[in-house]
Amino acid sequence: MRLKKIILQMSLLGALCLSSCFATQSGKSQYTPNVFSDDKLVRRYDRPVNVVLPALRKTLANAGVITAEDTTINVISARIDTRYVWVKVETDVESDNISRVTYQVRTKSSWLVGGRNPDVRLAAELAEDTFRNLVAQENPQP
Fold first, then answer.
1. pLDDT tens track for 94-113
2. Rounded to an integer, what distance in angstroms lies between the CA atom of residue 41 and that of residue 130?
3. CB 45 within 8 A of CB 99
């Protein structure tokens, strides 16, 4: 009986050691049992921030629902199906005309499946759609 208690305590301690928190683009910290995979995708666009933001808003509005926008740090939060999306737009350190956009996508929390897993595939699709919207914004079709 004592051995079973020790094994149970060790397995619970191991589960706690493997779980952790992740930081969103807006600076908030959230719990996740999956800490070993990367959840961010960074793209650079040769456009200033004030040009990239409208294209990004259009991308997120077409894909899902924009839930919050922090204009002081240029972070837009959205929900796409069951995914949570945070996108941060900032000026790149190399030039003022280059925007650095960080996409972060996580799944809905579920203890059965070990939720809040990263979804880099959706982040890549959002980055591609943002580029398409930038091109369409600069080259309007009659």
1. 888 999 999 988 887 655 55
2. 13
3. yes
Structural domains of the chain in order of their starting residue, each with its CATH number: 2-138 (3.30.310)
Q: Over the stretch 110-132, which tens digit does the pLDDT of each residue have?
A: 555 555 678 889 999 999 999 99
Residue 38 phi, psi dihedral angles, 5° rounding = -80, 140
The CB density around residue 12, as the number of other CB atoms within 10 Å, is: 10
- Of 55, 50, 47, which is closest to residue 134 (Cα–Cα)? 55
The residues with which 90 forms a beta bridge, in sequence order, are 100
The two tokens of residue 106 are: 């996580």
Q: Which residue has the tokens 């595939």?
A: 121
Q: What is the pTM of this model?
A: 0.74
